[in-house]
Amino acid sequence: MDTTYTQEQLDRRNRSKWTLVQAILAPLQFLTFLISLGLIIRYLMTGDGYTLATLSVLVKIGMLWLITFTGMIWEKEVYGQWFMAPQFFWEDALNAVALFMHNLYFVALLLGVDHAGLMTLMLVAYISYLVNFAQFFVKGLQARKARLARTDVQAA
Question: 22-42 as b/e, with b when 16 or more CB fall inside 10 Å?
Fold first, then answer.
C-alpha cells in the first residue's frame, strides 16, 4: 500500500502544475549529470576539456537548485510544508546533503583548489546526487506499483 499520499494529497499532487515540472526536470537533471560526469572523467583522464567540464558542473549545480526550489513549491502544495514533509523526510535530507556537497565546489574554488581537485570533489558530490536520485526513483516505482494495484482492485 502506498503511504506516501492520503487521497486528498494525491488529488492535490495530480492537480499541481509542479508535478509536471518535477517530471520534466528530473530526467533533465539526470541527463545533465551524465554529460557532466563524462566531461569530468574525460578531463581527469586526459587533462583536456577543463572549461567544458567546469561549465557542465555549473549547469549541474544550477539544475540541482532548480529542482530543489520547484520541489519545495510542489511539497508545499501537496503536503502543506515547504521542505522535510514526513513523507519525503529522508529524500529531502539527502537532497540537502547533495546540495551541500555540490556547493562545496564554490568553497574549494575560493580556496584555490587546483583543477583536478575541483573535479575530483565533484565526483564525490555526484555520488551524493546518485544516492538521492536512487531514493526518489525507488519511491516513484513504489508509488506507481501502489497506483497500479489500486487500479486493479477497482477494476475487479
Answer: beebbeebeebbeebbebbeb
